[in-house]
């Protein structure tokens, strides 16, 4: 009589169903962690280069700010537009229209958790960008003939970080409601234009270095994407084992 063979119990439908339901959620969480780590690493690298006064970065920063402010000073109409843009895109001023868009989205879709995700992420980005300023404590540019002044520290650009976070969060928020490719392309293009224009505004007014702006953009976009992937993980419906999708 042959010895009994050890057999691995077959995976029943309940086990398979649970595994299939868990795997996508786990992948979302891993992606969220990877995006968060990559964003943090990029911002930290730029911050270290700033703190160590890496010559190529310093030279590029100084040249861009000097030339940008000089160009703005030579064109009074452009300078007035830059100053107006600076005022309009302060985070405290953007919260009103952004909050209104979120409210309209909630009213039309009834998606409470998604709306709260957007608002919470935007406010978190605002708070963390201010915290980063205090940690790095980079002085603002000093020009012989300044065209504008600003208080506080320079790295990262709060205007750039908050505009990037708000526009990215709004695009992600309304994305399921944009039914055509044209609408989605227009939403992304609008977000890119507003964010890039805000970054250019900060450099041409001579109140931020390009590295401040780049760090702010990376921070704002990366934080929102990582937050959304985490939100997808926690908000994904859990299927009961053994039930069909």
TrEMBL record:
Transmembrane segments: 29-50, 85-107, 187-207, 213-231
Membrane topology: Multi-pass membrane protein
Keywords in alphabetical order: Cell membrane, Hydrolase, Membrane, Transmembrane, Transmembrane helix
Compositionally biased tracts (Low complexity): 10-23
Chief place where the protein resides: membrane
Keyword Transmembrane: yes
Domain Phosphatidic acid phosphatase type 2/haloperoxidase: 118-228
Disordered, as annotated region: 1-23
Gene3D superfamilies tied to this protein: Phosphatidic acid phosphatase type 2/haloperoxidase
One Pfam family per UniProt: PAP2
Cellular localisation: Cell membrane
Keyword Cytoplasm appears in the UniProt entry: no
Stored SMART domains: acidPPc
InterPro entries: PAP2/HPO, PAP2/HPO_sf
PANTHER family attached to this UniProt entry: DECAPRENYLPHOSPHORYL-5-PHOSPHORIBOSE PHOSPHATASE RV3807C-RELATED, SPHINGOSINE-1-PHOSPHATE PHOSPHOHYDROLASE
Full protein name: Phosphatase PAP2 family protein
Organism annotation: Promicromonospora kroppenstedtii
């Amino acid at each position: 009589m042959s010895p009994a063979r050890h057999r691995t119990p077959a995976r029943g439908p309940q086990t398979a169903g649970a595994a299939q339901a868990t795997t996508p959620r786990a992948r979302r969480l891993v992606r969220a962690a990877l995006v968060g780590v990559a964003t943090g690493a990029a911002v930290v690298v730029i911050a270290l280069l700033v703190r160590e006064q890496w010559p190529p970065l310093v030279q590029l920063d100084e040249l861009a700010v000097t030339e940008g402010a000089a160009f703005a000073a030579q064109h009074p109409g452009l300078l007035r537009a830059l100053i107006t843009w600076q005022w309009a895109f302060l985070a405290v001023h953007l919260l009103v229209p952004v909050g209104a868009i979120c409210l309209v989205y909630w009213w039309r879709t009834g998606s409470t958790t998604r709306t709260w995700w957007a608002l919470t992420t935007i406010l978190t980005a605002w708070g963390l960008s201010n915290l980063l300023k205090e940690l790095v404590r980079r002085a603002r540019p000093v020009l012989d003939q300044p065209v504008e002044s600003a208080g506080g520290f320079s790295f990262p650009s709060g205007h750039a970080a908050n505009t990037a976070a708000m526009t990215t969060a709004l695009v992600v928020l309304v994305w399921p409601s944009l039914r055509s490719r044209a609408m989605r392309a227009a939403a992304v293009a609008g977000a890119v234009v507003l964010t890039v224009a805000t970054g250019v505004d900060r450099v041409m007014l001579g109140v931020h270095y390009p590295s401040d702006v780049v760090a702010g953009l990376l921070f704002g976009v990366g934080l929102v994407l990582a937050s959304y992937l985490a939100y997808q993980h926690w908000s994904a419906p859990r299927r009961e084992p053994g039930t069909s999708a």
